[in-house]
Design goal:
This protein has 107 residues and is an alpha+beta fold. It has four helices and four strands, in the order H-H-H-E-E-E-E-H. This is PTM/DIR17-like Tudor domain-containing protein.
Length: 107
């Protein structure tokens, strides 16, 4: 967006370039939404989320096919197995689920 703003500054063909630049930005936005692995996030947001270490109390969202998106919270972390930690998730409706790190992280 910043690059597009700079490209549109000046006193000549800005009005002619405006439509093309805006359509390019809109196409990029549609592309982000269509990339299911990043869930519409900019690449740097995905990198930041992947580097976060899940902790007790962290709120998460999970989509259940046919039922919608539910909010949950990490209630405990089972660290007995050093090769793989297990996260106990509790959702707002009282349901519980155990997940590993691959299931918690987007993409």
């Amino acid at each position: 967006m910043l690059k597009t703003t700079y490209e549109l500054e000046g006193d000549r063909l800005e009005i002619v370039l405006a439509f093309r630049r805006i359509e390019t930005l809109r196409a990029y936005g549609r592309q982000l939404l269509s990339v299911s692995e990043n869930r519409g996030l900019l690449p740097n947001v995905v990198v930041i989320r992947m580097s976060l270490e899940p902790t007790v109390g962290l709120a998460i969202k999970k989509e259940f096919a046919g039922h919608g998106v539910f909010l949950g919270k990490i209630m405990s972390i089972d660290k007995e197995d050093t090769a793989k930690w297990w996260y106990q998730i509790e959702y707002g409706d009282g349901d519980r689920e155990t997940m590993d790190i691959e299931e918690l992280r987007p993409g």
